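Researcher: Next sequence.
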Amino acid sequence: MVSTEDSGALTGAGSAGVAGGGALTGAGSFDLDGAWQLDERVSIRPERFGALLYHFGTRRLSFLKNQILLDVVRGLAAQPTARAACAQAGVSAAELPSYRAALATLAASRMICRRST
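Model: Next structure:
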C-alpha cells in the first residue's frame, strides 16, 4: 500500500485535508492536474524502504513507504502536473488512487505545496 505516516499514525485518504489551499476537491480527492512541488522547508532523507521527509517549519516527519512514491515527490517540480509526475515515476492507472491519497496526505501535512505555473 502507498501511504504516508505522520508522527507514527498511519493516515489514509479520508483523513487528508488542506484548509484554504484548494488542494483537495470534492470528497477529499487530491488535484492531480495541478502543479505541485516539495515545500522548500522540507528535507528528504532516502531510506531503503523509501524516504523520510522532515518539515523544518512544522517539525513534522513523514515516511514515504516505497521508492516509487519518492520518485513521484522528487518529480513534482519538474513535471507540469502531479499526474505527469506519477506517470513519469511509473505509476499505473490502477495504482493512481493510492498515490493520489498519499499525495493528499502530503499536501495536508504541508510537505508538498502548490506551485505557480
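Model: Confidence is low (pLDDT under 50) at residues 1-27. DSSP finds three helices and nine strands in the chain.
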